[in-house]
Amino acid sequence: MIGLGIETSCDETSIAFVEDGKKILSNVVYSQIEEHNKFYGIVPEIASRSHLIKINEVYEKALEESKLSPKDIDYIAVTVQPGLIGSLLIGGQFAKTFCILYKKPIIDINHLEAHFYANFLERKEEPNYPFLGLLLSGGNTAIYVVEGLGKLKILANTQDDAIGEAFDKVASILELGYPGGPIIEKKSKEYSNTTNSLFPKILKDLPENQISFSFSGIKTSLLYYVRKNQSKLDIPYICYEFQETCFELVLRMLKRAIQITNIKTVEAGGGVLANQRLRELLDELAKKTHTKIYYPKNKILCTDNAAMVATLGYYYYINHYTTDLNFVPSSKIINSYSKFDS
Ligand code: KG4
Asked: Which residues line ligand 1 (CB under 6 A)?
């Protein structure tokens, strides 16, 4: 079964062709980073215009790499929520046009849910519900209990910034460039000393039975530190301490989630999972808690991409879910719990 995946929720224009939800035939990702980095963040207007300019080219390239013809496609899976509305509209319109031209069924995808399914592209096992979904990206930081297709129950959310957003803003404060995550990871590696902590532990008084995230306090703390020590800044040290403090919180909260729910499978996704230090910490936690923690081995599958969208679409399609041309993209998350009831 061949799926066409379309992803344009933020600043990546991506088209993929995936066989049986597992095998990537092509996964072309055009990243707009160069277009946004002088602004230290994403400019929505630039993002949607860029999707519009690039989407046909990305599609042609993906089609060529897959060696398929449009007729070979069984279903279209397109991200329709959440994200930048102008960006989502481009992918949505592309999908509708493709559907009219080639008469193929459409599946509307929540791309946060798709992040968890990126993991099934690389392994034989099928989703084992319920699992914990750990999402760490530029726009979201959350833990879900995933009870089935479209059945996501939020267990913990961020009270303020998303973790990736905090990395991006801190890189901006330190004038390191955009996106901040990969740069802060690289700088941290230059620091070899593990000494006392520069920043206070985040949410240190949160009761043991509660799970939450917060990253704006550490960002402010770092800003004040930078202002005070302007003339003698040790960038690798600051990056290292910032990264460690953020990941300590992630690990502490994930451990709580495992203990509270007693769910022993975690599917993790989102751009921040590309971080090698985080991957090591998750591997250690998996051993200590006898939990299976998965994240995409191939780092390109951590950030927004269309292959994960096609994979999630595959699971919906084999479970007889499709939508019609009236779907409306949404910048916010729409509750999909009743997707199979209508
Ligand atoms: O999932 P993603 O592509 O989409 C958005 O939510 O936009 O995640 C992008 C985020 C950015 O904030 C970026 O700084 C962060 O993921 N990121 C990283 C790393 N690579 C990307 N954060 C930490 N370490 C990394 N190696």
From this structure: 10, 137-139, 164-165, 167-168, 179-182, 185, 270-272, 274-275, 303-304
